[in-house]
Structures are given as structure tokens and as C-alpha cells.
Design goal:
mainly alpha, 7% strand
Length: 196
């Protein structure tokens, strides 16, 4: 993929040596926002990172866990984001995007779908290169990512775990993201390693 150089450097920095699971989201944020899943110094609008950490490291599978998560200080997670990214890496988790370029501002669903379809051959090659013949599980994040990528990747022999879309946590999708991802990871026995 041809991410912008600063995105690419951040991806390389946190790439695991061995993969336990690969997550594929839709696209990175717009360049000018200064945000990216793998940027350690982000102070706002990093919902995918925050919700992923909650699912993997704080448990969100029941009401008690959800209430506990509400008490987790987002500022503390953000303040120690580099530590959480390192743990994510050490645990063998990796997140890439189906499109290496941000979606155009105010792009329609149709335009986003076309972008993902156009980049599908690159996505297919990238995912195959990451998981190789190991059958490393791949989890698709977001309705469009799932709709465009699931079947073509399965046809390549890639082990796509989810059988339905997992909502992206942005724009109010946090609860469904946590619920669906937690259930899927539990069913597959994919858990973060103990220790912080």
C-alpha cells in the first residue's frame, strides 16, 4: 500500500513480528487532522483506537464491564497511548486500512464504495502478504469494508472471522462495535495476553 510517509512510518513502527489477528478498517483520517490509529500523540477523535483498547484490554461483554469502562479516563488512555500501541503490537494485533488514502471529505457511501472497490486488488495483496499461509484471522471493521472486501478475501483463502459487519465505532457506533467485536473474539478464543 502507498500510505502517506508519516502514516507508513507509524505502521512500520508498530508492526508485530507475528500476527494473532489483523484488523482491516476503511481508511485513515484526513491528513490535516493529525490523527491516525498508530500516532501516539492524539488528543481527540480517536474513537477506533479507544474502543479497540476497551474491547481488548478492559472487557466490555456485560453491563458491569461497560459501566467500568465508562469510568476509565479517556485522557489517561490517550496520555499513555504509546504504551497501549506497544502492547497491541506485542500481543500480535495489527490494523491496516482497505484504502491507504483518506476518503474525500463529505464523500457519499457510493463514492466510498467505489474507492474501496478500486483499491481491492491492493488490499488483497497486502492482507495476503501479512497473513501468508498461516491462516491468521482477519477481522473487517465497518459496513463498507465488510461489504466490499469480505467475499473477495475469502475467495483468496483468507480467514475472515466476521460473518457480518462490525460497526465502526465513530459517529455513535461504539456500543455495537464493542458488543460485536467482543462476541467475535470470545467465540474465536482471541484474547489479549495478561499484564499491562
Amino acid at each position: 500500500m502507498a500510505y502517506a510517509s508519516h502514516f507508513e512510518a507509524a505502521l512500520r513502527r508498530y508492526r508485530p513480528l507475528q500476527f494473532r489477528a489483523v484488523f482491516v478498517a476503511e481508511a485513515p483520517p484526513a491528513f490535516e487532522t493529525g490523527r491516525f490509529f498508530y500516532f501516539p500523540d492524539v488528543h481527540r477523535a480517536d474513537t477506533l483506537f479507544l474502543e479497540m483498547m476497551k474491547v481488548l484490554y478492559f472487557g466490555t461483554n456485560d453491563r458491569e464491564s461497560d459501566e467500568r469502562n465508562e469510568r476509565i479516563r479517556v485522557a489517561d488512555i490517550r496520555r499513555t497511548k504509546a504504551r497501549w500501541l506497544k502492547r497491541f503490537q506485542d500481543d500480535g494485533f495489527y490494523l491496516i486500512d482497505a484504502s491507504d488514502q483518506p476518503m474525500p471529505e463529505a464523500a457519499s457511501t457510493v463514492a466510498k464504495r467505489r474507492r474501496l472497490e478500486a483499491t481491492l486488488p491492493i488490499t488483497r495483496r497486502e492482507v495476503k502478504a501479512l497473513v501468508g499461509v498461516t491462516q491468521t484471522p482477519v477481522i473487517l471493521i465497518g459496513v463498507l469494508t465488510y461489504t466490499v472486501c469480505a467475499e473477495p478475501l475469502r475467495n483468496e483463502g483468507i480467514r475472515i472471522l466476521n460473518r457480518e459487519p462490525i460497526n465502526h465505532p465513530a459517529r455513535g457506533g461504539q456500543v455495537e462495535f464493542r458488543r460485536k467485536l467482543t462476541l467475535l473474539l470470545q467465540q474465536e478464543g482471541i484474547v489479549a495476553r495478561d499484564g499491562a
